Amino acid sequence: MRRRYWGIFTTIAVGFVLLLSILLVVFRLFGYEIYTVMSGSMEPNYHVGSLIYVKPVDIDELEENDVITFVADENNTIVTHRIVEVVNADNGKRFRTKGDANDVPDAKEVHYKNVLGRPEFSIPLLGYLAFHIQHPPGLYIAIVVAIGLLFVVFYPTVYDKRKEKTASKK
User: Fold this and answer.
1) What's the domain range around 135?
2) 122 annotated active-site
3) Which of 28, 33, 59, 118 is deepest in the core (most CB within 10 A)?
4) Are 120 and 147 within one domain?
5) What does the pLDDT look like over 35-94, one tens digit per residue?
């Protein structure tokens, strides 16, 4: 009976890790970049702690009211805001942006070269986990949990083989 519960537990744990891997890694293979929402400037569309999946976009397709993800400054701060105006300038397109929850547009226009893409979808709360996994001590905890999961999955097999060897020697 205990072995059955152990099997159920390990199946659920492995399934969870597999789902998390798909959500955090596999989408990158399909051209998505994944970012964690760190502020409430786009509430209620993108909640703090959500993961947003951003796909590159042709700059000429962007228009007013589209949401874009872009590099905001020389510190490589990534921001996701809504386009409130498209400005055609001599040195290329620029976008005036604003967070949905903000009262005023952003101070600086976004140059087309700084646009990373358009968010296609988001998953609430998963960003908290992704953020912590990418930075210590969360990274260390994730490694320990992964090693522990390997132990949990393979221990019954090793234990049963040892038990058989001990029984056959008697």
Assistant:
1) 1-30+126-155
2) no
3) 118
4) no
5) 999 999 999 999 999 999 999 999 999 999 999 999 999 999 999 999 999 998 787 899
